[in-house]
Amino acid sequence: MESLQDRVVVITGASAGIGRATAQELIGAGARVVLGARRRERLEAIEAEHPGRAIAVEMDVRVPADSQRLVATAIERFGRVDALVANAGIGMYGGILDNTDAELETMLDTNVAGTVWPIRAAVPAMIDAGAGDIVIVASVAGFRGGADEAVYAATKFAQVGLAGALDRELREQGIRVTTIGPAGTSTEFAMGAGRTEDMPELKTYLQPEDIAFAIRTVLEQPRRLRTQYWTIWSMAQGS
Ligand SMILES: NC(=O)c1ccc[n+]([C@@H]2O[C@H](COP(=O)([O-])OP(=O)(O)OC[C@H]3O[C@@H](n4cnc5c(N)ncnc54)[C@H](OP(=O)(O)O)[C@@H]3O)[C@@H](O)[C@H]2O)c1
């Protein structure tokens, strides 16, 4: 196991859900984190809890310059970037005709381009260092599309394809690329799809802390190992 003590991890989508839980988990393991998302006040609340170990950066993953600023902040304030957790994402469910063009454009841009821009920003520092970790939070929907989530699944398949290609491109430079594929997880995202808190299947859902644990485990692997794909279900969830 490699210690996370003082390692510098950039996390997108850190203001809520899986990203926020990951920030807390990694800080607890000794890491320093740079937190990106649009809701600054939520990021600042985490920063205030962990002075000197967490930095809030208001940013939008759809904007390439924002990702450059996020990574530049890590380098200016902490001197390096050891890992990127590309986690920011949105989901919209419904049949192929159910969402507006604008809604689908936003999801495609956030989930696909919004994964590419932070990676392009972080890779040069990792190449210079000869080591790094890129963890992409995709979904089980990126391995098998389900009904009423076709475009969401397409964005998650895109992340899986990106990760596989990057693994082949960057491994020899010491950069590990891992895809985490959570099943349904109890976050604002899960509740935002027309569900209500009393729906029985929500009781079977993973907790964001379960995914944070997986991300920590991936980052703590000895550097001679890499995990390419890790799909995660609760024991109560059928696959
Ligand atoms: N929950 C599930 O059931 C589930 C299952 C499988 C995979 N996932 C994946 O897990 C990831 C995290 O989702 P979650 O469940 O934790 O959802 P969440 O609680 O809604 O959190 C989503 C995060 O993404 C950020 N975000 C969204 N659009 C952004 C943008 N344009 N720029 C910057 N940040 C943005 C949000 O921050 P701001 O709004 O503050 O910008 C928030 O921090 C997503 O990629 C999702 O597809 C979730």
Summarize the structure.
The chain has helices at 17-28, 40-49, 64-78, 101-129, 150-170, 188-191, 208-220; strands at residues 8-12, 32-37, 54-58, 83-86, 132-137, 175-182, 229-232.
The tally of strands reads 7
**Could you name the CATH homologous superfamily?**
NAD(P)-binding Rossmann-like Domain
Q: What characterizes the major β-sheet?
A: 7 strands, parallel
What's the structural domain tally? Answer: 1
CATH hierarchy class name: Alpha Beta
| Approximate strand percentage | 15-25%
Question: What would your notes on this structure say?
Answer:
The chain is α/β, with parallel strands linked by helices. The protein has one domain (8-232): NAD(P)-binding Rossmann-like Domain (Rossmann fold, 3-Layer(aba) Sandwich). Helices cover 44% and strands 16% of the residues. It contains seven helices and seven strands. The chain has helices at 17-28, 40-49, 64-78, 101-129, 150-170, 188-191, 208-220; strands spanning 8-12, 32-37, 54-58, 83-86, 132-137, 175-182, 229-232. Helix 1 packs across helix 7, helix 3 runs parallel beside helix 4 (101-129) and helix 4 (101-129) runs parallel beside helix 5 (150-170). NADP nicotinamide-adenine-dinucleotide phosphate is lined by residues 12-19, 37-39, 60-62, 87-91, 110, 114, 137, 139, 182, 184-185, 187-190, 208.
Question: Which key phrases capture this entry?
Answer:
alpha/beta, binds NADP nicotinamide-adenine-dinucleotide phosphate, single chain, globular, Rossmann fold
